[in-house]
Every structure is written in structure tokens, then in C-alpha cells.
Design goal:
The chain has 138 residues and is mainly alpha-helical. It has 2 domains: 1-78, Multidrug-efflux Transporter Regulator, Chain: A, Domain 2 (Orthogonal Bundle); 80-118. The chain has 5 helices and 4 strands. The chain has helices at residues 3-10, 14-22, 41-54, 59-65, 82-117; strands spanning 29-30, 36-37, 69-70, 75-76. The strands form 2 sheets. Strands 1-2 form a two-stranded antiparallel sheet. A two-stranded antiparallel ribbon has the order 3-4. The longest helix is centred in the last third of the chain and has 36 residues, at 82-117.
Length: 138
């Protein structure tokens, strides 16, 4: 199948499929016309890549793990270093979550302290100061 058909069957844009190819995640054959030709197994490979990306893995990590991947879930064969790679990524995510939690707590503290100081005796803020970026509602 050509790249457009693979895109249609997987819902992944052609430029993303070309990126996967450049990263060594997909290996199409080339027709005599020069067009990329993908086998039916490419659909499963793209599904696996998308699922691994959703798990927060980089394309480099996916290239390393892809030989251990089976099925659409994807299911993983217990290849050497597989668990080390997955655990390292999980640890990195947990560190980021902890850092975000600390940032959230610090911002809450700033807001609490500032709100307690709000008084009609304080002059209004400088109207010439740049507007702060809007914060999305929760």
C-alpha cells in the first residue's frame, strides 16, 4: 500500500509516517516509481508506535523497544533491558509530576498570601503594566 492508504487506515498524517521512517521506526519498500510501499504489517507497527508515544516514550526509545513489541496493545516480550527502559521513563515522569506539584503548591501559597493582604487601603495596580497571561479555568 502507498503512504496515503497507510495514513487513511491508521489515521496518522503522512508527514508523521515520513518522520517515523526517518527515525527508523517504519521501513517501507520502494516501488520502481520511487513511491514508498508498505506491507499490511505496517498498520500494526504504526498502531504500536502511536500507543508507545502515548505512553510518553521518545522515538529513540521506541526504536529500541519496537523489536520487543507484539500485538496492537502493544504487548511486550521480556527482552533484556526492556524493563529498565520503561522504569527509567516512569521514574522521569514521576519526577516531573513531583516538580509540577511543588510548583502548584508554591503558586497556591503566593495566591493565599496575596489574597490575605488585599485591602481597600492598597492603591490599584499600575494600569500601564502588561496584562498577565490568562490562566485557564479548572
Amino acid at each position: 500500500m502507498l503512504i496515503g492508504e497507510l495514513s487513511r487506515r491508521t489515521g496518522v498524517h503522512t508527514h508523521q509516517l515520513r518522520y517515523y521512517e526517518a527515525q527508523g521506526l517504519l521501513e517501507p519498500d520502494r516501488a520502481t516509481s520511487g513511491y514508498r510501499e508498505y506491507g499490511d504489517d505496517a498498520v500494526l507497527t504504526v498502531i504500536q508506535i502511536r500507543k508507545l508515544l502515548e505512553a510518553g516514550l521518545s522515538s529513540r526509545q521506541i526504536a529500541y523497544l519496537l523489536p520487543c513489541v507484539t500485538g496492537p496493545a502493544p504487548d511486550l516480550e521480556p527482552c533484556p533491558e526492556l524493563l529498565d527502559t520503561l522504569r527509567a521513563r516512569l521514574y522521569g515522569l514521576e519526577e516531573q509530576i513531583d516538580a509540577l506539584g511543588r510548583s502548584r503548591d508554591a503558586l497556591r501559597d503566593y495566591i493565599d498570601v496575596t489574597e490575605r493582604r488585599v485591602s481597600p487601603h492598597y492603591p490599584p495596580c499600575d494600569a500601564t503594566a502588561p496584562e498577565p497571561e490568562p490562566v485557564p479555568a479548572r
